[in-house]
Predict the structure.
Amino acid sequence: MSGKDEAELSRLMRAAIAGDERAYADFLRRIAALVRGFVRRKIVQGGVDPEDVVQETLLAIHVKRHTWRQDAPVLPWIYAIARFKLIDAFRRRGRRIEIDVDDIAETFAEPETETVSERDINRALDGLSPAQRSVVSAVSVEGRSIGETAAKFGISETAVRVSLHRGLAAIAKRFGQGRFGRE
Amino acid sequence: MRTDDLIKALDADARSKAMPLSSAWWLAAGAAAVVAAVVFLLTIGPRPDFMAAMHTMRFLSKFVFTIVLAVSAFALIRALSTPGAATGRAMAWMMAAPLLVAAAVVLELFAVPEADWGTRLVGSNMMICMVFIPLIGIGPLAIFLWMLRYGAPTRPVLAGAVAGLLAGGLAATFYAAHCFDDSPLFVATWYTIAIAVLALLGALGGRFFVRW
């Protein structure tokens, strides 16, 4: 499966970088499913919620997408980030795990769907400035477009984009530093 | 927040752009070279007989060692800051500079009578060497650590140490133009210690500063 996935995901990612937003949404949904499968296989005992790791990985992939070289395969890049975020999640919770790199080939995950519970990302969201938090919430939880969000708050679309971008970057940074209130 | 909601937010931010990491590394390397050059020229500067020294093998060999170190560390740090990139070959190339130094040391031991080994090793500049290589390299190291934050190193401590080796190779290239001690015995000892200091600082920076 990985050869076909690789070609398709690389194509979507290149299209996304070129400015195709639909390709990007498609790309993110597919890798969310892949990473979810990978993470669930790896977390055999409790303590770490797989979906938290999925979300941290997606955010990291988003804010670090300039580190992907367009002539390189995209799956090793995705799994390297997912593995890093998974190890990070275990480390934060005081556990040590060894992840065998060779495992990954077989683990290439069945796509899986999400389970819902309280999320680390909500705690990270609480740490944002009020303006950033309301913009991020409007675009994500309320599902508003950039234009609708701008109208709702009476600010320009550019201001919405800036707040959204900075808010997401701030959440990713808090994840990186392990600061979102669980400890 | 559900993952689908997060994806909506990420997708809405799709248009935000950042400079590709590989271009940013070249920019950082240029900036680091400028910083090192400025510090070098404002403090110790090249030795007065620089042009004449260019005709001696020992003087030139110092630049071979330091430039090979800097180039191999640059290749490795670029790979280490990219998730999933292969690092094996770049790791192997890191052996090139130490092997060249080791070969030069062996040649020097044959070329120089045993009675002179001590003076060649101790030289006349070891304190200056140990102070100025880290001093010239600290600015570049800060730039490289900042670049590691911009990248996504999955082994931050190792990447930080390599940032130190890169800064050290760069700083030592400038310092070599100042120093009168050209013997490989001196270089193998004091340059190594000075560069190791930067590598250690880099590893600490990688541990505590490079989070993502």
